[in-house]
Amino acid sequence: MTAGKIRGLAVDETARGQGWGSALLRRAMQVYDQLGFVTLYGSFDVGSPHLEDFYRSHGFDVLGVGAKIEMHHLGPAVQTGSDDSERMFVRHRDPKSLPWGDLLAGR
Q1: Beta 39-45 vs 3-6: how paired, if at all?
Q2: Cα(2)–Cα(84) distance, rounded to whole angstroms?
Q3: Which of 13, 41, 46, 105 is the least buried, fewest Cβ under 10 Å from its Cβ?
Q4: How many of the other CB atoms lie within 10 Å of CB of 58?
Q5: Is residue 74 a contact partner of residue 2, using CB atoms and an 8 Å limit?
Q6: Strand pairing partners for 43?
Q7: How far apart are CA 40 and CA 3, in angstroms?
Q8: In whole angstroms, what is the distance from residue 6 CA to residue 99 CA?
Q9: For the whole prediction, is pTM greater than 0.85?
Q10: Which residues pair with 62 in a beta bridge?
């Protein structure tokens, strides 16, 4: 498996703005990177516009409502998406940078 999903990342309202969310996300990114995941993605409620800036500031692309994430490294028809109440965020690494990247490139 080369795609991981960030799910359930939340910080209590009284602790927001203190760096806890960033610390949790950075640690998740480190673990997924160490495991060799190429794609890391998730979604957030459209009623939380501040999360767009949060995920962008951590190197993720934030997609529009209803947009799908293409994961070509898993096969030509693999994609995931959300309904109209959520927006997706995604971060792809170059598969060639991984020790087994040749396998993903079809070599």
Answers
A1: parallel
A2: 26
A3: 13
A4: 16
A5: yes
A6: 88
A7: 6
A8: 23
A9: no
A10: 89
Strand order through the sheet with 39-45? 3-6, 39-45, 86-92, 61-62
Write out pLDDT tens, residues 70-86. 776 555 656 566 667 78
3-class DSSP string for the chain? CCEEEECCCCCCHHHCCCCHHHHHHHHHHHHHHHCCCCEEEEEEECCCCHHHHHHHHCCCEECCCCCEEECHHHCCCCEEECCCCEEEEEEECCHHHCCCHHHHCCC
What is the pLDDT confidence band of residue 104, given thresholds at 50, 70 and 90? very low
Q: Between residues 1 and 91, which one has the greater pLDDT?
A: 91
* Per-residue confidence band for 107, with pLDDT thresholds at 50, 70 and 90: very low
End-to-end CA distance of the chain: 18
Of the candidates 53, 49, 59, the one whose C-alpha atom is nearest the C-alpha of residue 28 is 59
Residue indicated by tokens 């800036």:
53
